[in-house]
Design brief:
Elements lengths: L1 H19 L3 E14 L7 E16 L2 E12 L13 H4 L2 E13 L6 E8 L32 E8 L4 E8 L25 E9 L6 H4 L1 E10 L2 E11 L4 E9 L5 E9 L2 E13 L2 E12 L2 E8 L2 E8 L4 E11 L5 E8 L12 E11 L4 E11 L9 E11 L5 E12 L13 E9 L1
Parallel strand pairs: 8-12, 11-15
Antiparallel strand pairs: 1-2, 1-23, 2-3, 3-4, 4-5, 5-6, 6-7, 7-9, 9-10, 10-13, 11-12, 13-14, 14-17, 15-16, 17-18, 18-19, 19-20, 20-21, 21-22, 22-23
Length: 442
């Protein structure tokens, strides 16, 4: 009930503000339903979401603002005791998310200087979703069907326009970690012990950076311009790896029979990233490329087996490593659209010896005056080219979208996985899904 009153209060506040402020205001949004199931297993339903997104844009002389609120009836009934049957939060879980909320101030202090402050998504890069230079917002892996999503964060952004250049500076004062996969996609946490020991409990502790500028802040700088009909940019980020790294294991032996408790510690190491990207066309073919050099902080993995016995091993070297992506797209005369990309280094890859390769192809074709769209995605993960048969995985699937009326989409498709269980995607090869979505925009 309190969630309902909170949502109603926010909507009422938006309506009051947009009607009272002397500004041009637009309210739009969307209604989206998304349901998924797995053909295999006992709990076949994996995703149950009904979402209302509200987007408000307001502008006045030299100032504009934007916000997006997401109201989500997300998840499944969580009833384990009878007293939860009285609480709608357990029967139909409701989540309220402030996705973005920021203000733009144009020509502040200087005529060609714009400032944006607030919770915002800062997207850098030219590739199609698989960006290696897009490192200011943390990854959002809540939905594996759209792992290119990011979490907007509170930021201060400056855009300066000297001549043909665009210079962008960003300050993110508070570190935000990445959101990992939902529980029904999580691989079980494991820890290998010597055969003479028996694991009783396994727990972990994640250490966030201290809430002070020198530990938590992320800084970014980008210079961009168009030259010879191509868009080019150079960028630099001083930040942290948003995926936690295991840096310590406390192995505590309880008795003489070898009963053991293990406590793991994970941290977010510092790193610097130097990036470059470009985009343009060759004839009718669109092309793009990105490259990022990561300069990580050196980290040691410490294993404590007793107060007087400690082992150390290098878990992350400070040697630079590279990620890059190249791709292009083309529409044939018969209307078939093809998009292909090669990615060296997934979002979670790090370290010189732990970078994998990915190949992705998407095909689209529209029918019946574009009322029907078919799409096929085929992707491959190669962990080791010397042993492709045993160190690779494949994923993707078909999708069908129907547009029966203006602003409405009916979408159905599947996400299929196969490959070796030692790879990032192959470990989920039993998690094939079928989905059905409806989206109405207004």
């Amino acid at each position: 009930m309190k969630t309902f009153f909170l949502c109603a209060g926010i909507i009422l506040t938006i309506l009051v503000l947009t009607t009272s402020v002397k500004a041009e205001t637009n309210i739009g949004g969307y209604i989206n339903t998304d349901n998924r199931l797995r053909p295999k297993g006992d709990d076949q339903y994996t995703w149950n979401e009904n979402r209302l997104g509200l987007k408000v844009t307001a502008s006045a002389d030299g100032v504009s603002g934007f916000s997006e609120l997401r109201f989500r009836n997300f998840g499944f009934p969580d009833i384990q005791q009878t007293d939860r049957l009285r609480d709608s939060d357990y029967i139909q879980p409701l989540r309220l998310e402030l996705y973005e909320a920021y203000v733009d101030i144009y020509g502040l202090f200087l005529e060609n200087l714009d400032i944006r402050v607030g919770k915002q998504r800062i997207a850098w890069g030219t590739a199609d979703k698989l960006n290696v230079v897009d490192n200011l917002n943390p990854d959002d892996f809540e939905d594996i069907l759209d792992f290119s999503q990011k979490i907007p964060t509170m930021s201060l952004r400056f855009d300066y326009y000297p001549g043909d250049f665009i210079v962008t500076g960003v300050i993110v004062p508070v570190f935000t970690p990445a959101r990992s996969l939902p529980s029904n996609w999580q691989a079980p946490v494991s820890f290998t012990l010597p055969p003479e020991l028996n694991l009783r409990t396994l727990d972990d502790e994640v250490i966030l950076p201290k809430n002070r500028p020198q530990d938590s802040a992320i800084l970014g700088l980008r210079i961009k311009r168009t030259l010879l009909d191509y868009d080019w940019s150079l960028s630099y980020v001083y930040g942290r790896d948003e995926w936690a790294l295991l840096t310590k294991a406390d192995i505590i032996t309880i008795d003489t029979l070898g009963t053991t408790d293990v406590h793991l510690t994970l941290e977010y190491p510092r790193h610097q990233i130097v990036g470059a990207d470009m985009a343009g066309t060759i004839g009718d073919i669109g092309i793009w490329a990105e490259c990022a050099m990561f300069l990580p902080e050196k980290k040691i993995y410490t294993i404590i087996t007793s107060p007087n016995e400690t082992q150390e091993q290098l878990v992350l070297d400070d040697k630079p490593y590279f990620k890059y992506v190249v791709g292009g797209d083309y529409t044939f005369k018969n209307g078939i659209y093809i998009n292909g990309q090669y990615l060296h280094g997934f979002y979670t890859d790090r370290g010189v010896d732990n970078i994998e390769d990915y190949f992705l192809i998407a095909l689209e074709k529209k029918f019946f005056h574009e009322d029907l769209k078919t799409r096929m995605v085929i992707a491959a993960e190669v962990a080791n080219f010397d042993d492709i048969e045993n160190r690779s995985a494949y994923f993707g699937g078909p999708e069908l979208t129907y547009y029966p009326k203006d602003n409405i989409e009916l979408i159905t498709g599947s996400f299929l996985l196969a490959g070796d269980s030692s790879t990032q995607f192959g470990q989920f090869k039993e998690n094939d899904e079928i989905y059905f979505k409806v989206k109405y925009s207004f």
